[in-house]
Amino acid sequence: MPASTDVPATADLRSDESGITIVLRGSWRITATYPNWAEVIGDTPPANLNFDLTDLGRWDTSVVLFIAGAAQWSRLHGVYCDFKPLPDSLRRLVGHFEDKTRHPVPPSRPHDFLATVGRASLDVLEQSRQYASFVGECTLSFLYLARHPHKFRWRDTISEMQRCGAMALPITGLIAFLVGVILAYSGAIILRQFGGDIWVADLVGVTMTREMAAMMTAIVLAGRTGAAFAAEIGNMRANEEVDALTTLGIRPIDFLVIPRLVALGVMMPLLALYANALGVIGGMTIAWVLLDIPPPAFWVEMLTIVDMSDLMTGLIKAAVFGAIIGFAGCLRGLQASRSAAGVGEAATSAVVTAILLIILFDAIFAVIFNALGW
Questions:
Q1: Residue 47 · residue 18 · CB < 8 Å
Q2: Are 201 and 332 part of one and the same domain?
Q3: What is the pLDDT of residues 230-278, one digit of tens each?
C-alpha cells in the first residue's frame, strides 16, 4: 500500500508544455474533506488536462466526482482531457458518471394555454368515460338483481337507509330551517318596501319546494354520506377486502354499491320532504316575527302559488341527486389507491364530484322543466 494512504487528500496543478497536469495525493474519502475542482482550477486559463496519480492512496467516489468535474470543465472550455493515466476501474466509473450526467433531463416548463386546455379536456373525457362505464355496470347489476331478488342484500340496504336517512335528520333539518329563515328575511327586506309582505310566503314556498330543499339536502349528504361511502369502500380496497369478494365470485358492485344506491334513492326524496317542511317553518317564523303575518295567513298564501308540480319537481331532483351522490362515493371508493392517503383523496374527490354533478344536473333540470312548463 502506498505511503500516502493516511495523508489527507490534495490536488495540485502543474503547468508544462503539454498543458496542465493534475497531481492527486493522499487518501480520498467521500466522508472526509477533499478538494473541490472549482476551487482547485480557480481562474486558471484553459489548457489540456493530464493526470498524475502516482502518489494517490486509497480512493472512492470522491475521486470520481473530482475527475468528472475536471472533464466537464474541459468540455466547456474546448480543451482535451487525457484519461489514459487513470486506472481502468476509475476510467470506467468516470465514463458511467459522464453518460448519466452529459444529457440531464431538461427542467419542466409550464405548458401554454392551448396545451393546458387540451390536457384538461382529455381529463374530463376520461372521467366521463369512467363514470359512464360505472353507471352501465350498476344498471346491469340492477337488472340482474331485479330478476334474482333473493340475492339482494336487504339487511345492508336497511342499515344504509338508517345511516344516510334517519341519522341525517338533525343536520338536514337545521340547514333547511336556516335556509328558510334566510330566504324569508332577505325577501322581507325588499318586499316590505312595496307593501308586498305577504308575498314572502310565495317566495319561501316556491324556492324551498323547487330548489333549495333538494339542493341543500344533496350538498349535506354529499359531504356526509358520499365521503363516508368513498372512505369505507376505499379502506376495504386498501385492506384487499374488495379483492377477496372478487376471488369468492361475488361482484363488488352487487355487494357494496347497489345497496347504497337503493338506500340513497329511497331516502333522498323523504329527506327533501322533511327539508321542505322545516324550510317553510323557518320562513313562517320570520314572517310572523318580522312582518306580523300569522302562520295561517302565511300557509294560505303559500298554497295559492305552490302546487303539486312544484313538489314533484323537487322530489325528482332529490331522487336524481341521491343517485349522483351514491355513484360518486362508490366510484371514487373503488378507484382509491391502496393507502391511507388514497382513502382520504377518494373521500375528497367523491365530495367534489358529487357537488359538481349536482349543480350541473340542477341546471339541466331547470331548462327541461321550463320547456315542459312545470
A1: no
A2: yes
A3: 999 988 888 888 888 888 888 888 888 889 999 998 999 999 999 999 9
